[in-house]
TrEMBL record:
Protein name per UniProt: Glycosyltransferase
SUPFAM superfamilies for the chain: UDP-Glycosyltransferase/glycogen phosphorylase (SSF53756)
Keyword terms of this UniProt record: Glycosyltransferase, Transferase
Keyword Glycosyltransferase: yes
Amino acid sequence: MKVCVGTIVHHPEDARIMHRQIRALLEAGHEVTYVAPFTHCNVTPIPEIRAIDVPRAVGLRRRGALSAARAALRRGSKDADLLLVHDMELLFALPRRRPPTVWDVHEDTVGALDTKPYLPASARRILPGLIQRIESRAERRLRLILAEASYRERFTGNHPVVPNTTYVPETPPPPPGANRIVYVGQLSEARGTLEMIELARRLRPHGIRLDLIGGADPQVRPMLRDAQREGLLDWFGYVPNNHALRMAEGALAGLSLLHDVPNYRHSLPTKIIEYMARGVPVVTTPLPLAASIVGRAACGMIVPYGDVDAVAQAVLRLRDDPERRTVMGSRGYSEARGQYHWPDQARDFVAHLEEWASRVPAPALRRVVPV
């Protein structure tokens, strides 16, 4: 099977797209053409794929990226058996003549509007209804894969859920250390960046440093640079997921200080699963799924939203109790290995695509929203 995979929004090394789904397709013996913003993100494509470079869609300036994506998807899907797109934006760039097409729904698109400060107030009023119309029309014309079971409420059909789990090492990772905490993922205000900077300030006298591993939204980059110059923390920028998780091993705790916003409220907290997979105790805010997973596995500590004092106290308690943090790390690893190992979902993911590729192509999607 030949599959064309496309994104203009996500980083080409996005964990779900590159390190899980594309890797699963390659390991199953399929050929992959990958349309992604390689040059923009300074990424060299792996030799196992056929790469087509496109501009990245950033902020409000997306017209050029969409135009380039339209031509790239036409070229990439010309001899493909299946087209798999990862952005709502690409629904406007689908070729008229195309193979069976799948949209992988990554997020609560309406809920995510609260995390995009660059949007003007007028757009925030109009976009929810527009997005719902786009999703409804896409559901009638395409196959859908959902990253969260909670996304089913937005659609009328029974679409398969492919969760954002992770690769869990076969052998247990090293035990947690005593002088380093870590965060892996995109950095933004809604993801708790300002709280983490203040946390680093409070923990520095205790000899505990903070490692931040991930790209950052423009709004928080100046604060991160200032904190790094002050010596409060180490910010490594974007690191491919597999390397980032190896960097997290041996940390005293992994942080997930997400705010209570709609886009996070009912999502599987992938970073928490990733910390667990690497034997790192979790410190998380009480988002429902996060609290449920950490509480059930007894692999970390739950702190109130925005309460830096509570986070600092949780970290210090773990620092002062080596046995407790070692047990938490071990419990988290066992839970992740038993319940959240990506290869267990990869087989179903590949099987869905193989089944859809063998069917008659869906009708051409000329417009997503009627004029």
